[in-house]
Protein backbone atom coordinates (compact mmCIF):
# COMPACT_ATOMS: atom_id res chain seq x y z
CA UNK A 1 0.00 0.00 0.00
CA UNK A 2 1.58 3.26 -1.12
CA UNK A 3 -0.26 6.28 0.24
CA UNK A 4 0.06 10.01 0.66
CA UNK A 5 -2.08 12.01 3.06
CA UNK A 6 -3.21 15.53 2.19
CA UNK A 7 -5.18 18.19 4.01
CA UNK A 8 -5.14 21.75 5.23
CA UNK A 9 -3.04 22.65 8.25
CA UNK A 10 -4.96 21.53 11.33
CA UNK A 11 -6.96 18.86 9.50
CA UNK A 12 -5.50 16.20 11.80
CA UNK A 13 -2.98 14.66 9.39
CA UNK A 14 -0.35 13.78 11.98
CA UNK A 15 -2.66 11.90 14.33
CA UNK A 16 -4.59 10.08 11.62
CA UNK A 17 -1.45 9.10 9.75
CA UNK A 18 -0.09 7.56 12.92
CA UNK A 19 -3.18 5.31 13.16
CA UNK A 20 -3.27 4.45 9.46
CA UNK A 21 0.42 3.46 9.54
CA UNK A 22 -0.18 1.24 12.55
CA UNK A 23 -3.23 -0.53 11.17
CA UNK A 24 -1.80 -1.31 7.72
CA UNK A 25 1.82 -1.73 8.84
CA UNK A 26 3.07 1.17 6.75
CA UNK A 27 6.21 3.21 7.17
CA UNK A 28 5.18 6.68 8.31
CA UNK A 29 7.29 9.16 6.37
CA UNK A 30 7.10 12.73 7.68
CA UNK A 31 9.07 14.96 5.39
CA UNK A 32 10.00 17.51 8.05
CA UNK A 33 11.22 14.85 10.50
CA UNK A 34 13.27 13.09 7.86
CA UNK A 35 14.91 16.37 6.90
CA UNK A 36 15.82 16.98 10.54
CA UNK A 37 17.24 13.44 10.89
CA UNK A 38 19.41 13.82 7.80
CA UNK A 39 20.79 17.08 9.17
CA UNK A 40 21.35 15.64 12.63
CA UNK A 41 23.17 12.60 11.21
CA UNK A 42 25.26 14.87 8.96
CA UNK A 43 24.69 12.71 5.87
CA UNK A 44 25.71 14.11 2.48
CA UNK A 45 22.03 14.92 1.89
CA UNK A 46 21.85 16.43 5.37
CA UNK A 47 24.67 18.84 4.59
CA UNK A 48 22.82 20.11 1.52
CA UNK A 49 19.58 20.40 3.48
CA UNK A 50 21.33 22.35 6.22
CA UNK A 51 22.43 24.99 3.74
CA UNK A 52 18.78 25.77 3.01
CA UNK A 53 17.09 25.31 6.36
CA UNK A 54 19.73 27.09 8.44
CA UNK A 55 18.98 30.34 6.62
CA UNK A 56 15.20 29.75 6.54
CA UNK A 57 15.10 28.98 2.82
CA UNK A 58 12.62 26.54 1.29
CA UNK A 59 14.19 23.23 0.33
CA UNK A 60 13.82 22.82 -3.47
CA UNK A 61 11.41 20.13 -4.65
CA UNK A 62 14.08 17.89 -6.18
CA UNK A 63 15.89 17.67 -2.85
CA UNK A 64 12.65 16.95 -0.98
CA UNK A 65 12.10 14.10 -3.42
CA UNK A 66 15.62 12.75 -2.87
CA UNK A 67 14.85 12.63 0.83
CA UNK A 68 11.56 10.82 0.18
CA UNK A 69 13.11 8.41 -2.26
CA UNK A 70 15.73 7.35 0.25
CA UNK A 71 13.03 6.66 2.88
CA UNK A 72 10.76 4.79 0.50
CA UNK A 73 13.50 2.49 -0.76
CA UNK A 74 14.04 1.36 2.79
CA UNK A 75 10.70 -0.09 3.90
CA UNK A 76 11.90 -3.50 5.04
CA UNK A 77 9.45 -5.02 7.52
CA UNK A 78 6.61 -2.78 6.32
CA UNK A 79 3.77 -3.41 3.85
CA UNK A 80 4.26 -0.06 2.18
CA UNK A 81 4.40 3.58 3.22
CA UNK A 82 2.36 6.67 3.91
CA UNK A 83 3.88 10.05 3.14
CA UNK A 84 2.81 12.94 5.34
CA UNK A 85 3.30 16.56 4.15
CA UNK A 86 4.16 15.95 0.50
CA UNK A 87 3.36 16.72 -2.24
CA UNK A 88 2.14 20.13 -1.10
CA UNK A 89 2.25 21.73 -4.55
CA UNK A 90 2.16 20.68 -8.21
CA UNK A 91 5.89 21.21 -8.56
CA UNK A 92 6.52 18.57 -5.87
CA UNK A 93 3.94 16.25 -7.39
CA UNK A 94 5.64 16.45 -10.77
CA UNK A 95 9.00 15.83 -9.16
CA UNK A 96 7.50 12.73 -7.48
CA UNK A 97 6.33 11.16 -10.74
CA UNK A 98 8.79 8.26 -10.37
CA UNK A 99 7.42 7.36 -6.94
CA UNK A 100 4.41 5.12 -7.46
CA UNK A 101 1.42 6.18 -5.34
CA UNK A 102 -1.72 4.00 -5.10
CA UNK A 103 -3.98 6.51 -3.41
CA UNK A 104 -4.13 9.94 -1.78
CA UNK A 105 -6.17 10.26 1.41
CA UNK A 106 -7.64 13.76 1.61
CA UNK A 107 -8.82 15.06 4.97
CA UNK A 108 -11.33 17.49 3.62
CA UNK A 109 -12.37 20.55 5.60
CA UNK A 110 -14.58 23.21 4.07
CA UNK A 111 -15.17 25.40 7.09
CA UNK A 112 -11.78 26.95 7.80
CA UNK A 113 -12.95 28.28 11.17
CA UNK A 114 -12.80 24.67 12.33
CA UNK A 115 -9.12 24.70 11.42
CA UNK A 116 -8.38 28.07 12.99
CA UNK A 117 -10.02 26.94 16.17
CA UNK A 118 -8.15 23.62 16.24
CA UNK A 119 -4.76 25.11 15.53
CA UNK A 120 -5.07 27.81 18.13
CA UNK A 121 -5.89 25.14 20.74
CA UNK A 122 -3.24 22.70 19.59
CA UNK A 123 -0.54 21.34 21.88
CA UNK A 124 2.37 19.18 20.80
CA UNK A 125 4.57 16.79 22.76
CA UNK A 126 8.19 17.72 22.00
CA UNK A 127 9.35 14.22 22.92
CA UNK A 128 7.00 11.70 21.27
CA UNK A 129 5.45 14.20 18.77
CA UNK A 130 1.87 13.35 19.71
CA UNK A 131 -0.64 16.10 19.05
CA UNK A 132 -3.40 17.04 21.47
CA UNK A 133 -5.37 20.15 22.42
CA UNK A 134 -6.25 22.22 25.44
CA UNK A 135 -9.73 20.64 25.25
CA UNK A 136 -8.44 17.07 25.39
CA UNK A 137 -5.66 17.52 27.87
CA UNK A 138 -5.80 20.01 30.71
CA UNK A 139 -2.77 18.63 32.59
CA UNK A 140 -0.22 20.28 30.28
CA UNK A 141 1.75 17.01 30.30
CA UNK A 142 1.81 14.33 27.59
CA UNK A 143 -0.40 11.40 28.58
CA UNK A 144 1.95 8.98 26.80
CA UNK A 145 5.41 10.02 27.91
CA UNK A 146 4.89 12.72 30.54
CA UNK A 147 6.86 15.46 28.78
CA UNK A 148 5.63 19.02 29.11
CA UNK A 149 3.38 19.96 26.17
CA UNK A 150 4.19 22.92 23.95
CA UNK A 151 2.45 25.15 21.48
CA UNK A 152 4.00 25.11 18.06
CA UNK A 153 5.91 28.34 17.60
CA UNK A 154 4.00 29.22 14.43
CA UNK A 155 0.49 28.39 15.71
CA UNK A 156 -0.88 31.92 15.74
CA UNK A 157 -3.70 33.47 13.73
CA UNK A 158 -1.55 35.30 11.15
CA UNK A 159 0.52 32.28 10.19
CA UNK A 160 -2.56 30.05 10.29
CA UNK A 161 -4.33 32.30 7.78
CA UNK A 162 -1.21 32.36 5.65
CA UNK A 163 -0.97 28.56 5.69
CA UNK A 164 -4.65 28.19 4.77
CA UNK A 165 -4.24 30.58 1.83
CA UNK A 166 -1.17 28.69 0.66
CA UNK A 167 -3.04 25.38 0.95
CA UNK A 168 -5.92 26.70 -1.17
CA UNK A 169 -3.64 28.09 -3.81
CA UNK A 170 -1.04 25.31 -4.02
CA UNK A 171 -2.34 22.08 -2.49
CA UNK A 172 -5.91 22.02 -3.82
CA UNK A 173 -4.64 21.60 -7.40
CA UNK A 174 -2.63 18.56 -6.21
CA UNK A 175 -5.80 17.06 -4.71
CA UNK A 176 -7.72 17.76 -7.91
CA UNK A 177 -5.06 16.03 -9.95
CA UNK A 178 -5.21 12.89 -7.77
CA UNK A 179 -8.99 12.96 -8.28
CA UNK A 180 -8.55 13.03 -12.05
CA UNK A 181 -6.24 10.02 -11.79
CA UNK A 182 -8.94 8.12 -9.87
CA UNK A 183 -6.69 7.90 -6.81
CA UNK A 184 -8.45 10.21 -4.38
CA UNK A 185 -9.96 8.94 -1.12
CA UNK A 186 -12.05 11.83 0.18
CA UNK A 187 -12.76 12.03 3.93
CA UNK A 188 -15.04 14.41 5.81
CA UNK A 189 -12.56 15.67 8.42
CA UNK A 190 -14.85 18.10 10.20
CA UNK A 191 -16.01 15.50 12.71
CA UNK A 192 -14.41 13.91 15.77
CA UNK A 193 -11.05 12.17 15.41
CA UNK A 194 -12.66 8.79 15.97
CA UNK A 195 -15.39 9.26 13.35
CA UNK A 196 -12.82 10.52 10.87
CA UNK A 197 -10.58 7.53 11.52
CA UNK A 198 -13.45 5.08 11.01
CA UNK A 199 -14.30 6.65 7.69
CA UNK A 200 -10.63 6.48 6.65
CA UNK A 201 -10.37 2.75 7.41
CA UNK A 202 -13.65 1.99 5.68
CA UNK A 203 -12.75 3.89 2.53
CA UNK A 204 -9.18 2.60 2.34
CA UNK A 205 -10.45 -0.99 2.63
CA UNK A 206 -13.04 -0.39 -0.07
CA UNK A 207 -10.53 1.31 -2.35
CA UNK A 208 -8.05 -1.53 -2.20
CA UNK A 209 -10.72 -4.21 -2.47
CA UNK A 210 -11.83 -2.64 -5.74
CA UNK A 211 -8.33 -2.41 -7.16
CA UNK A 212 -7.45 -6.06 -6.42
ZN1 LIG B 1 4.83 12.54 24.67
Provide key terms for this protein.
single chain, binds zinc ion, 212 residues, 15% strand, two-stranded antiparallel sheet, Rossmann fold
> Secondary-structure element order, as H and E?
EHEHHHEHEHEEHEH
CATH architecture descriptor of the domain at 2-110 and 173-210: 3-Layer(aba) Sandwich
Return Rg in Å: 17 Å
Question: What's the story with the biggest beta sheet?
Answer: 5 strands, parallel
Beta-strand content? 5-15%
Average pLDDT works out at 90
Strand order of the largest sheet: 2-3-1-4-7
Per CATH, the superfamily of the domain at 2-110 and 173-210 is P-loop containing nucleotide triphosphate hydrolases
Q: What's the number of helices?
A: 8
Question: Could you provide a short overview of the structure?
Answer:
The protein has helices spanning 13-24, 31-40, 44-53, 61-72, 90-95, 112-120, 157-180, 193-210, and strands at 2-7, 27-30, 81-84, 103-108, 122-124, 131-133, 184-188. 48% of the residues lie in helices and 15% in strands. The longest helix has 24 residues, at 157-180.
Describe the structure.
With 212 residues, the protein is an alpha/beta fold. The protein contains eight helices and seven strands; from the N terminus they run E-H-E-H-H-H-E-H-E-H-E-E-H-E-H. The strands form two sheets. Strands 2-3-1-4-7 form a five-stranded parallel sheet, with helices on both faces. A two-stranded antiparallel ribbon has the order 5-6. Strand 5 and strand 6 form a beta hairpin. The mean pLDDT is 90. Bound molecules: zinc ion. The site of zinc ion has 8 residues, from loops. Zinc ion binds next to loops.
